[in-house]
């Protein structure tokens, strides 16, 4: 996800003429020494081929790529906790892990409503896992002051839903656009949009 710096090396060649041996030529020190100029290569935010860029653009790309990488890890932590709480049959409050990865108040309120409804309804999941199948950047997308956005798709069909011990059926495949923001030094889930059930992850 990061670009690569290419350095241009300057090589001096000493020319030796024919005939009797001549003393080895030494570089003249009369002119200024020209330092090699670094060339920076940047990759577009949405992916693709690298192209030359300025040092400032390269640094910005590194910072952006690092934020996307941290955002993905944050979402994976969220999924792990979401599955754990679902297996436990919901909850009456958000766990410390949920609070650590969710920064937006609207998202916290929504997840709190979810875990409470799960508990009240007697729902739980067994077996399987929540598999993150699609992770795609959404360049230029901002919502409620977010920093970066990513399209996510989760396949939870390997997990089975139960209600008060009675098997209901397999869980579902869901997709959503997730927005992240750096809060107190950490990239957290800020809000989301376009959450929906889909047939499969594309």
Shape: elongated
N-to-C span: 21 Å
Instruction: State the order of secondary-structure elements, H for helix, E for strand.
Output: EEHHHEEEEEEE
Using only CA atoms, what is the Rg?
Answer: 27 Å
The second-level CATH architecture of the domain at 73-198 is Roll
Q: Which strand-content bin applies to the residues?
A: 25-35%
SS-based structural class?
alpha+beta
Q: Average pLDDT across residues?
A: 86
Query: Tell me, what is the CATH class of the domain at 73-198?
Result: Alpha Beta
How many E-type strands? 9
Q: Indicate the CATH topology of the domain at 73-198.
A: Nuclear Transport Factor 2, Chain: A
Strand order of the largest sheet: 4-5-8-9
List the helices and strands and how they pair.
Blueprint: E1 40-42, E2 51-53, H1 55-87, H2 96-101, H3 105-121, E3 123-126, E4 131-137, E5 148-155, E6 160-163, E7 166-170, E8 173-183, E9 186-198
Antiparallel strand pairs: 1-2, 3-6, 4-5, 5-8, 6-7, 8-9
Describe the protein's architecture and organization.
- This protein is an alpha+beta fold and 202 residues long.
- Strands 4-5-8-9 form a four-stranded antiparallel sheet. A three-stranded antiparallel sheet has the order 3-6-7. Strands 1-2 form a two-stranded antiparallel sheet.
- Residues 1-29 have low confidence and may be disordered.
- It has a domain at 73-198: Nuclear Transport Factor 2, Chain: A, CATH 3.10.450.
- Strand 8 and strand 9 form a beta hairpin.
- Helices cover 28% and strands 29% of the residues.
- The radius of gyration is 27 Å and the shape is elongated.
């Amino acid at each position: 996800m990061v670009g690569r710096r290419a350095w241009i090396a300057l090589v001096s060649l000493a020319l030796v003429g024919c005939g009797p041996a001549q003393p080895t030529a030494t570089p003249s020190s009369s002119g200024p020494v020209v330092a090699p100029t670094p060339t920076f290569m940047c990759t577009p935010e949405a992916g693709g081929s690298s192209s030359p860029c300025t040092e400032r653009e390269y640094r910005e790309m590194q910072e952006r790529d690092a934020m996307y990488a941290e955002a993905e890890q944050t979402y994976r932590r969220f999924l792990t906790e979401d599955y754990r709480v679902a297996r436990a049959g919901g909850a009456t409050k958000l766990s410390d892990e949920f609070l650590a990865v969710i920064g937006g108040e609207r998202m916290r309120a929504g997840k709190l409503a979810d875990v409470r409804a799960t508990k009240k309804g007697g729902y739980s999941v067994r077996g399987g896992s929540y598999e993150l199948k699609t992770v795609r950047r959404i360049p230029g997308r901002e919502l409620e002051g977010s920093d970066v956005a990513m399209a996510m798709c989760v396949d939870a069909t390997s997990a089975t839903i139960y209600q008060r011990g009675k098997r209901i059926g397999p869980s579902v495949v869901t997709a959503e656009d997730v927005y992240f923001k750096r809060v107190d030094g950490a990239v957290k889930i800020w809000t989301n949009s376009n959450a929906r059930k889909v047939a499969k992850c594309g």
